[in-house]
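Input record (one chain):
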Amino acid sequence: MRAQGSNRLAWISAIGLIVFAVATILVGFAWLPSVQADFRAQGIWDSICRAAGVPSKWMPDGGREQGAPTVASNVVLLPAMARQASPASVGRGATLALNCTMCHGAQGLSRSDAPNLAGQYPEVVIKQLLDYRSGKRENALMSALARGLSEQNIADLAAYYTSLPKARTAPTTYDETLPALVRVGDPMRNIAPCISCHGGVDQKLGAPWLEGMPKQYLVQQLQDFKQGRRKNDGQQQMRNVARPMSEEEIDAVAIFYARKALPAHQ
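The corresponding structure, as predicted from the sequence alone:
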């Protein structure tokens, strides 16, 4: 009798464990994902990945956007690009920059929707001009201007703009008041925090300074990355970040960085 009672208790425990496991799976993989505002049922794999907190796929269409170039950029970023240039290089760059003032301002501060270049990291200016020259980044005006520049010209322009008075605020630092996407990103959607590359926690070589940039310029670039119109980001880093962002999130991030300008330039 005692043995039968033990067996019965074991069976009840096993059945209870199975019921508990099934209930847990249903809650974790079905009910919890379904109550999220952006939930779209696309199969068991999507549900498993969502419950585990990882993206179901990292890149669309087998890892490459339709029509995207095989190589996003021919530029190899090297620490030497970020070194301080000689006064002679700055002087030559100042002469060359006379062709840039209509859009980027006489002192590298744009009054239109072109990016501010005063105090920008030199490797950023170098990379973008080389990408315009090679056609990896497209803009009718910038591509035409860049095609006539030698590598020395490009280095001189970068030296000049980097030397200009810093019309930017201190870098964005980690603070609980920052917008969520700037501060921590959104791991569930594979969105890295902005400050992990663009200053604050760290500045990745080649990642531009964003504080004080014109809002519409930031919105346009995020939209271009999101839609795949801009493709010169290595390993699709910015496209992977921007693709899942909503229009409201793009606007909020752009407003945040645009408001970081000094009062005189707001």
